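Subject: Sanity check before I submit

Could someone independently write out the C-alpha cells for this chain? I want to compare against mine line by line before I put it in a report. The sequence has 193 residues.
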Amino acid sequence: MKYLPKVSLSVITVLAAITLFACDGNYEKVRQLNLADEVPVGIGEGIKLIHTDSGKVVANMLADKLLDFSNFDFSYYEFPDGVTVYFWDEEGQKSTITSDYGIRYDQTGIVDLRQNVHVITSDSVQLDSEQLYWDQENNWVFTDGPYTITFSDGSYNDGAGFDSSQDFKIFLSRKNQGVQLIENQIEDQEDGE
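---
Independent answer below. Compare away.
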C-alpha cells in the first residue's frame, strides 16, 4: 500500500475544508439557482387534507400530486394532476369542486382552478367553466371566462364572466343568456261587488 506524501494529504485536507466553507457561504446562491430552475421544495403524492373548524370537518381536499413552491417569495402550491375539494356548511350539507389543474397562492389565499372546472353545491347548483378563481378569505368565486350554470329550479345561464358568493346565493353575471323560471301565481277573484 502506497502512502501519499504529507504535502499531498495536506493539500487534499485544505481543499476539502475550502469546499465545505464555500458550500456554506453559497447556500443562498444555491437556493436562488433552485428558484431559477423553478424546482419545488417538496412533492407530495396521494394528498388527502382535512380542514376542521371547532372540531367539525369543513373541507376535505384530494389530489394525486402536490408541488410545494413555498420557497418562492410569492409562494404557492400547485396541483398539476387536478384536485377535488369537498365542503360542508353549518348544516352539514356537502358541495364539491373538481378541476384538472389548480394553484393556491399563500399570500392572497386565492385558488386558481383550471381545465374542466365543475362545481356542484349542496342545493344542486351546477357550474362548469374552464377557469374559476376562489377567494377563500372572502368566500367569493369569480371568472372572466365563459361558464354555464344551472340553478336548482332548472333555470340556467351561459355567459362570460361572473362574481358570486361561494354558495351561489348571490350571483352577478356580466354577460349572459339563458332561461329564468319565474313562478307566477294567479289569485282567484270573486265576483261580487
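---
OP: Matches mine. For the report I'm noting this point. The domain at 44-179 is CATH 2.60.450.10 (lipopolysaccharide transport protein A fold).
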